[in-house]
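Re: beginner question about structure tokens

> Can someone show what the tokenized structure looks like for a real chain? I only ever see the sequence side.

Sure, here's an example I had lying around. Input first:
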Amino acid sequence: SLKSDSRKPISFRATLLIYSLAMAALPILLVGLIVLNVLIDNMKQEISDNTLLLTRSLASEVREFLVQPLNLLKQVEEISIRSELIAPEKQNTYLEKLVKNYPFMELVMVINNQGRVIAVAPYNENIDGIDMSGMDFFQTTLAQKRPYWSPPFIPSQTSQPTLSISIPSAQGVIAGYLNLASLGDIVDKFN
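And the corresponding structure tokens:
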């Protein structure tokens, strides 16, 4: 024997009510989806704008970080050229004071045309008077007569990533070691 279906058929009125509610909800859902899509697009644009602003600010800070050492070396060049301002025997003392004001510079050297270090800060008797004529930064700076940035390296004294920066001078070359770990401080400012 077959069981008869005990469910009541849905009345016309109930069916009409369900369809009316669905038709009323459909525009609300469509408007909601459109608004959600616009909000998502606006958020993406805002994130993109903020990222661009952050990138530009970081680039500006890094550019300033890289320009400062060149300015320092140019200042050393000016003083070393005008030996009447600072006697040669006092150049190391002057360089010491200058380097203390620029903590990102590990070392600054004044090198004569023959490649001999004639002043160094911080003072190191192992570097003072050493022959640098075979060093790439010295040869390249003299040959190209423009600032030279070496590839990064890690000196055993500091174990920190470093660049050698050098500029030509009337006496020979002014060179410095730039500690790249200081770039981490710049990046940390943006976190």
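Each token stands for a local structural state, so reading them left to right follows the chain. The mean pLDDT is 85.
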